Amino acid sequence: AEEGESNNISAISIAPGIVDTQMQVKIRNADNFPLVDNFRGYHADGELSTPEVVAKQFLPFCIGDSGENGQRLDVRDL
């Protein structure tokens, strides 16, 4: 963010959180993944976002609302 600022380039970071994708399904079904219980818990407790929700929250930043230079956004807080 700092490096590009003088050239009118801004940068933001967007954290999508844990998204319920096919990768999550594979992780939850894995027997040899060390944190499998954590990921099963995220799913059981409703802590996963859907890809559609993440995309809807992320879209404004793709089409013009650039946020503040250097800003870190968490989709769960938008």
Describe the secondary structure blueprint for this structure.
Blueprint: H1 2-5, E1 13-15, H2 22-28, H3 36-44, H4 51-62, E2 72-74
Parallel strand pairs: 1-2
Give a quick set of tags describing it.
single chain; 78 residues; mainly alpha; two-stranded parallel sheet; 4 helices; 41% helix
Summed up:
This protein is mainly α and 78 residues long.
Verbal overview:
With 78 residues, the protein is mainly alpha-helical. Helices cover 41% and strands 8% of the residues. The chain is built from four helices and two strands; from the N terminus they run αβαααβ. A two-stranded parallel ribbon has the order 1-2. The longest helix is centred in the last third of the chain and has 12 residues. It is elongated. The mean pLDDT is 85.
Roughly how many Å is the radius of gyration?
16 Å
- SSE order: HEHHHE
Separation, N- and C-terminal Cα atoms: 21 Å
Mean pLDDT: 85
**Number of helices, where a helix is a run of at least 4 consecutive DSSP H or I residues:** 4
